[in-house]
Amino acid sequence: MAPALRDRPRRRPLRGIAVAIALGVVLGGCGRQSIVSPRSPQTHDIRTLWWWMLGVGGIVFLGAIVMLTMAYLRRDVRGLPFIGDREPIAQGLVVMFGIAIPLVVLVALFGVSDVYLIDSTSPPDPRTTAMTVEVIGHQWWWEVHYRGTGAVTANEIHIPVETRVNVVATSADVIHSFWVPQLARKIDEVPGRQNRVLLYADRPGSYRGQCAEFCGAQHAHMALYVIAQPMAQFRAWLAAMSAPARNPSGGAAAIGRRLFEADQCASCHQIRGVTAPVTVGPDLTHLATRSSLAAATIPNRPSYLERWIANPQSIKPGDRMPDLGLPRWQISDIVAYLDSLR
Amino acid sequence: MATVITPRGQRQVQRLERIWIERKGLLGWITTTDHKRIGIMYFFTSLILFGAGGAEALTIRTQLFGPNNHVVSPETYDQLFTMHGVTMIFLFVIPMTTGAFGNYLVPLMIGARDMAFPRMNAVSYWLFLGSAVFIYMGLASGHAPNAGWFDYVPLASKAYDPGNNIDFYGYGLIFNGIASTATSINIIVTIFKLRAPGMSFNRMPLFCFAFLAVSFSLLFALPSLSVACLFLELDRQLGFHFYDAAHGGDPLLWQNLFWIFGHPEVYIIILPAFGIATAIIPTFSHRKMVFFPLVALAELLVAFLGFGVWVHHMFVVGYATITTVYFAAASMIIVIPSAIQLFAWITTILTGKPQFKTPLLWIIGFIVYFMIGGLSGVTVAAIPFDQQVEDSYYIVAHFHFVIFGAAVFPILGGMYFWFPKVTGRMYHEGLGKLSFWLTFVGTFVVFFPMHILGILGMPRRVYTYPPGMGWTFINQSETVGAFLLAAGLLLIVGNLTWSYFRGAEAGNDPWEGDTLEWSTTSPPPPYNYPVIPTVTSPYAMWDKSDRELDSRRLERGEGVLQQGHETVASTVQDAEWDEIVSMPPHSLWPFLVGLAAPGGFAMLLLHHYWIAAGFLVLAGLLLIGWHHREVAA
After folding, report:
1. CA of A206, closest CA in chain B: separation in Å?
2. Which residues, 6 or more positions from B574, have their beta carbon under 8 angstroms from its beta carbon?
3. Is the terminal CB of chain B with fewer CB neighbours within 10 Å at N or C?
4. Residue in A with minimal Cα distance to B148
5. Domain-terminating residue out of A240, A274, A293
6. Pair (A292, A199) in one structural domain
7. How far is Cα B163 from Cα A24, in angstroms, rounded to an integer?
8. Nearest alpha-carbon partner for B424 in B525, B532, B534, B570
9. Separation between Cα atoms, residue B282 and residue B538, nearest integer Å
């Protein structure tokens, strides 16, 4: 492998993101998919609901534990202090704790969660959203389209911050579930259905998400990032993403491009402006701008990309991408090419 | 107090001994129609399968001990968690509760001499055994089902799972369902028709109410699963399109059919536990159950309402909000009958004089864990929260508290409680308590942190996870808890095995129990009771005058039925003496049916449809042969 590849200049637009991810890992390592570090109004509501439910549930639980403890402490004495053990009194206790109190608590919970809060997690009215992103689940990666533009990407969704985004979730094969816990509830991707969910981030950052519905051998390695950025940055990104791939000026990358077309790569992956449209594997038109590979399984660095192309089955056993058995020199040229796709 | 047998009564008993004599040896077990021996066979079979399911669970926990672990391959992991679910639900809890506890105890508690259909009972067992072997042949051949116990299509369709893994599931569950259906019909008819004269419904033990509710649930829930599996196999084998969105089918049809079965199933699993709790609590609290009629009603209501909540497993599939809200409301309503029972148990213990022996400890553990599982269940009836934690480890925590903490703890407590009755020996109390505490702590350590994992966003059914997510330490402690739990369970087996050989004599009634089974000898004779018992209240054993009356009736030969292999049928509601029914003797036919049926299913799996048809015709002929012989006899 050419040493120059490792030492290539830093990608400026990604530096902020890389720092954000690193900070995220260090500062809030526990929080990357935590539903109690919400970054949107709906997940904020859900967190509040959770702490309330935990609190009230905790009181109910402690109440029962107190009763059992009393039963233990008074094991040699029949009945309760003052009120004894007469059946009507015992029955009254059952009615109070088994019917009356649960009824009040449940009606309150139903009102708050299933009548009031449910509005914030229901599919958004499309008129209230600024844009629509289509997220199509595949075994085991995410295909992403920006409706109304030519932009196609995979495993990384950029959205403008503080903007209501309408996500249309569907599947190309089996059932998946789109879940970015800090930003939104999950929504299943069911073949034949177009499900929708609101995506919103109230501050810039990189948010990890993961497939939540069991979808086969590599369900564990089907993650993604949602990157929320200021509107101007997002617009620039979207414009770049809509453009076809840049042609390499020469050198290893130019050889890599010819190898990409000649080897089996192009039968599954499209590079817009270069190869025929195909969606068996992720679109690679601007691969070098993404932060991760193989559905957020490994970082997008040339050394990892090389390992991935050489032996994907050792990283994601059972993955649809086969071990192609390409010679090492071909791989490093292909890596050079892919790494030039910004 | 037990029925006293005088010398005159002894002569009646000797006649009964001759009439109800059982074959000896292995052939005796194969041909038996005695509900107690069938119950024991169910017990050991499902216990072995419990061990298999447990071994699968420990392997899963070992794989999850650290991030990016490589103990098993992803494919093996998928097979393991699928088999763990299928085993625990279909091959352990259902046969252990309805098959072992139901079979052994229901006829005893209602004062009958056997189940209503003794041969069908035997055939249920052999079919269950056949289905278990059938399903485990998948694992043995390396092709175990691998799409989860919920087996969602299209992942389970031929296009994405071309091997025969899923066929072991599809055919196996249809097969297993036949056995469970037969058992539930048997329990229903037994409870409706064979109750001792005088045991009207308001005098029937709550244990039997629970088993009645379970049997009805099984009877009405299983067809949905069988149809779902039938459609699945038609899609897979013959190219039908029930679940194929590309050809006008719908993958959500599977989910609906599956959960129309699957949610009642949850109550099918938990209701026997309620029944066992209501048997153990009054005995050790020395107090009648508080609010008996309401508790009986609540048991039936849970089973009924359980049929109206299935979409709460589908809050994130994209259904309209109004649909989901209806099912959320129904799911919250079902909390009420559960809460009624919970507080009836607690109040009974609280106002009684509880003796905290091993069986009651398990019930206390059950109450504590049922509270945790129930409360987390309420939280997921709040749709927005469910939409966050669905398919995360929070759900795994929730249902393990319900299914393991709440459903299995009473089974384990029940093993200790009825061990003296079944074997005639006492278990070791100190080791019993130790096994409880080990299991109790282990259960908490393995399952409670899963709530936190879910809150931290760890999805279910992942074979591994990356480092740096805050999940590693929690997973490690859970794995330690799993082995602690396994140690507790092994100690139970050790205790009971040792006690079987070395335990003290138990006598008929070591607990001063409240139900009829404690009036007969331990273990009970093949005819259960020398005289069909007199019943005037739901706490038959505490009505001492009735038991004295039984002794006098035995002397007079009244209600002894010494003319043949007989028991008493009574009217459904009021249990008035109806007629004497003749029970079939032991027979080889059920075993032969049980041999032919697995052959048929194996041939279906191998696509030899004509041979499969041959086996099924053979099974039909065997049933005719069985009938013919009964008429001739």
Report:
1. 14
2. B200
3. C
4. A214
5. A240
6. no
7. 43
8. B525
9. 11
What's the whole-number mean pLDDT along residues B189-194? 97
Q: Which domain holds residue A101?
A: 29-120
What is the rounded distance in angstroms from the CA atom of residue B168 to the CA atom of residue B587? 30
Nearest to B594 by CA among B216, B66, B41, B167: B41
Residue with tokens 């994992």: B453
Confirm if B460 and B392 have CB atoms less than 8 A apart.
Answer: yes
- CA neighbours closer than 13 Å in the CB half-sphere of residue B422: 24
In angstroms, the CA A271 to CA A261 distance is 10
* Residue A33 forms contact with B (CB below 8 Å): yes
The nearest CA of chain B is from the CA of A216 a distance in Å of 7
Q: Do the chains contact at B371 and A49, CB–CB below 8 Å?
A: no
- Determine contact: A314 vs chain B, CB below 8 A: no
Residue B561: which of B189, B19, B114 has the closest Cα?
Answer: B19
- The last residue of one of the domains, among A240, A275, A297, is A240
Q: Are residues A100 and A49 in the same domain?
A: yes
Q: What φ, ψ does residue B505 adopt, rounded to 5°?
A: -60, 135
CA angle B619, B621, B627 (to 5 degrees): 110
d(CA B278, CA B292) in angstroms, rounded, equals 10
Instruction: Find tokens 């702590």 and name the residue.
Output: B441
Dihedral class, residue B139 (left if φ above 0, else alpha if ψ from -120 to 50, else beta): alpha
Determine, yes or no, domain membership for A1.
no
Q: Kindly state whether residues A105 and A177 are assigned to the same domain.
A: no
Chain A residue numbers with beta carbons less than 8 Å from the beta carbon of B385 are: 46, 49-50, 53, 113
> Which of B321, B382, B464 lies closest to A122 in CB terms?
B321
- Per the structure, how many domains does chain A have? 3
Running along chain A, 342 residues long, what does each successive block of 10 average in pLDDT?
40 50 47 93 96 96 95 89 85 94 96 94 93 97 96 97 97 97 97 96 96 97 97 97 91 94 92 93 96 96 96 95 93 95 91
If asked whether residues A147 and A213 sit together in one domain, one would say yes
Question: Cβ of A85 and B351 within 8 Å?
Answer: yes
A227 inside domain: yes
3-state class of B184 per DSSP? helix
Q: What is the pLDDT of residues B472-512, one digit of tens each?
A: 999 999 999 999 999 999 999 999 999 999 999 999 999 99
How, if at all, do strands A205-210 and A223-229 pair?
Answer: antiparallel
Cα distance between residue B181 and residue B221, in whole Å: 10
Across the interface, whether the CB atoms of A53 and B382 are under 8 A apart is answered yes
Identify all chain A residues contacting B147, using CB atoms and an 8 Å cutoff: 214
For B332, the closest chain A residue by CA position comes to A106
Q: What percent of chain B has pLDDT over 90?
A: 89
Give the 3-state secondary structure of B332-365.
HHCHHHHHHHHHHHHHHHHHCCCCCCHHHHHHHH
With respect to residue A10, please indicate whether it lies within any of the assigned structural domains: no
Q: Which residues of A touch B458 (CB under 8 A)?
A: 33
pLDDT tens digits for B249-282?
A: 999 999 999 999 999 999 999 999 999 999 999 9
- The CATH number of whichever domain residue A300 belongs to comes to 2.60.40.420
Which residues pair with residue A224 across a beta bridge?
A: A209
Do both A226 and A296 map to the same domain?
Answer: no
For the stretch A247-275, pLDDT in tens is 888 899 999 999 999 888 999 999 999 99
Asked if A231 and A259 sit in the same domain, the reply is: no
Round the average pLDDT of chain B to a whole number and report it. Answer: 94
- Separation between Cα atoms, residue B169 and residue B164, nearest integer Å: 9
Query: pLDDT band at residue B2, thresholds of 50, 70 and 90?
Result: low
In B, minimum Cα distance to A71 occurs at B350
Same domain, A215 and A258: no
Are A230 and A183 part of one and the same domain? yes
The span from the CA of B437 to the CA of B416, in Å, is 14
| Tokens 């997973």 belong to residue | B475
